[in-house]
Give the backbone structure.
Amino acid sequence: MIKSKVVLRFPASVVEQPFIYTLIKEYNIIANILKANINPRKEGNMVVELKAAESDFKAGIEFLQERGVMVLPLERQIVWWEDRCTQCGFCTAICPTDALWMERPKMTVSFCSEKCIVCEQCLKACPARAMEALYQAEE
Amino acid sequence: MSQLRSIKEINEKISKGQAVVATAEEVLSIVAEQGVEEAARRVDVVTTGTFGPMCSSGAFLNLGHTTPRMRMTKVYLNGVNAYAGIAAVDVYLGATEIPETDPANTNFPGDFNYGGAHVIEDLVAGKKVRLEALSYGTNCYPRRKLETYITLDDINEAYLFNPRNCYQNYNVAVNLSERTIYTYMGILKPELGNATYSSAGQLSPLLNDPYYRTIGVGTKIFLGGGIGYVAWQGTQHNPCVQRSANGVPREGAGTLALIGDLKQMKAKYLRGVSFLGYGVSMQVGVGIPIPILDVETMRYATVKDEDIVAQVVDYGEAYPQGSGGSLGEVTYAELKSGKIIVQGREVPTAPLSSYPKALEIAQLLKHWIEKGEFTLAEPVATLPSADSSIKMHKLTEKGGNTND
């Protein structure tokens, strides 16, 4: 079995076709849609977790690519919404890599994304909910 | 102690734009350079600030009358229950109230993403808030059901009334147990994995006026970005705890009940917050001016982080069970350094109260006073102080019938 999160980009020309239905029905792929949207130019963007036997998984990806769907590896990124952050500093006790850190003695909070290992512990630890995990395609 | 100036004289200087104002941080270097007596002669007002989670907060709202009229019995704002056991369309929305549909801690630890504090923040931010109300109906108030939207501008009076804010000092929380715990002091990792604290220390209002010599009932303050007042001593006001030689309580002591017009406030100084596994709270920004009436007032207002101690308390066992005391004392200077020593071990620290926001508030209040936009109010009554012999009552369970 392979389980992988990917980003699918649907050009406007194919956005109305039932790809996920086909993946499930024809390729025995378990698809768990994490996020999906269609932009004003009618291009689709979907973050989906696909789980299937290796041969089905490969065939399913080939099917998508043949129909013009871009399949991109997924990168999770933690984003610090500075305007929502109230600079309390509690996250700095939870972050295991000091990606969230305080400048002392000013006690201001900063986020260094290079140090972040995307453990996601900060997401619910932050009382002001200023941290968010965004799924982005690696490009 | 000879008086240097009165509040009336300070207000005259403020209205002429001549008042000399310093934040509780700035005044430290002024005193270090010039000495406390000269500093007291030169500075008229010291501004303090704090911005931390203050659960005992909430807002009274008058929602206005519908046609036909309704005596609202059950009121929900964005699904959060507001207390309606007062007059027809008056409610009190408590900061920590969560929607009845919130799973709370059934799936431990609960997220508590939205509650009363978030509704207050949304109202202050000008957002539309869904109002649902139910009633049993009376001759004078026949309506039984209402579903609509309100905004802060639509409703009549809206004022914050916080029964317990501005705690004068507080515990430092640690966890001696073997499991992670989820508390109002944040997530505490097992076996002294971290320590949390919640005070602005040297900027905190009541730590700069430890015996409440200038802060009293009627003191005019910065509350949530608008103007507010001290309404009373806060709940659990406990001024008779142990104090250091500088008069500063060594543990949680005095508190303030605060009131202020919600319509003047700003969402950046009133924030709904979620404590994993605990619940919802509200970060409240408060700034209190201290009139430098004499040298003694200035001496108290120049308290430094290294001169304020707090008690380290185990939230794994001692606090929840109400058993056990302190694991030791640490200063706010130590807490702010990022690590403290507890039971011989180095423990990383993190605050829950925002020092940069507290400073921002003290600076903003200073700016208001300097520009002549904010004058001081003479307190109309003093708060019970260290000589009041107040004792906190424990709630003991008693058997038998009520009136036996």
Remarks:
- Chain B is about 20% helix and 30% strand.
- Chain B has a mean pLDDT of 97.
- The first strand of chain B starts at residue 21 and ends at 23.
